[in-house]
Specification:
Blueprint lengths: L44 H6 L5 E4 L2 E2 L9 E2 L6 E4 L14 H10 L22 H12 L8 H14 L11 H10 L12 H19 L1
Antiparallel strand pairs: 1-4, 2-3
Helix pairs in contact: 2-3, 2-5, 3-4
């Protein structure tokens, strides 16, 4: 009678995947690890849909894995995404967006990630407005207006605020035109101009306290 020898199952501790998506295009993976890439494909969709013959775009993912093959690995054809002209977000339910979210998205991508990235700037140009300062700078500039201003007015406000923060030759205002084009594309899906503006909200709370204090006196 023969008996079979069974090997004990060997297990390994699998490292946890990153808790947040990454924005890098190259990422080193440990054995059994995985990663989620965050890709802003909506920034190019309006242009692609505008030039599409049938008004549709089929979106699939491509990834290259080192040591496997020189050919890019494609995502499943059956799970491809269909994006049609007129669509503006992947979020279900036709949600509305605040104007600051739309402007921030367009301007943020064009700003340097770090001040050191602007190596071509002249030393007398001061410190450039980086992505980390984008939201607060745009918020403060938008808070100066009760409704959507002319592009030149917002551009001037952004330049003034940026200069006050040490950027003697600010570029942030030059990206307003792209932001306004995005606002035009989102027409009908936007909230009021002042929605979501923290600087304006803080200013209103401060003024309210001053009025209450004056009434108390």
């Amino acid at each position: 009678m023969r008996t079979k020898k069974f090997r004990r199952h060997q297990t390994r501790d699998r490292p946890e995947s990153p808790s947040i998506p990454v924005r890098f295009t190259v990422f080193r993976l440990e054995p059994y690890a995985r990663v989620t890439f965050l890709l802003d494909y909506w920034s190019v969709m309006p242009h692609l849909l505008e030039n599409s013959l049938n008004g549709k775009i089929v979106l699939r993912g491509y990834v290259g894995v080192a040591g496997r093959t020189n050919r890019l690995q494609k995502s499943s054809w059956t799970r491809r995404w269909h994006i049609q002209r007129g669509e503006y977000t992947a979020v279900e339910g036709s949600p509305t967006f605040t104007p600051i979210a739309v402007l921030w998205r367009e301007i943020y991508l064009r700003l340097p990630e770090r001040a050191s990235d602007e190596s071509v700037r002249h030393p007398s140009s001061g410190v450039a407005i980086t992505r980390g300062l984008a939201h607060s700078t745009i918020d403060e500039a938008m808070s100066r207006f009760e409704r959507r201003p002319a592009p030149e007015e917002l551009q001037s406000a952004l330049a003034e605020i940026a200069e006050g923060r040490g950027d003697r030759f600010p570029m942030i205002g030059h990206y307003v035109s792209g932001g306004y084009e995005a606002l035009d594309r989102m027409e009908g899906h936007l909230t009021d101009w002042t929605d979501g503006l923290r600087h304006r909200s803080r200013r209103q709370k401060r003024l309210k306290k001053e009025v209450e204090r004056d009434d108390a006196d």
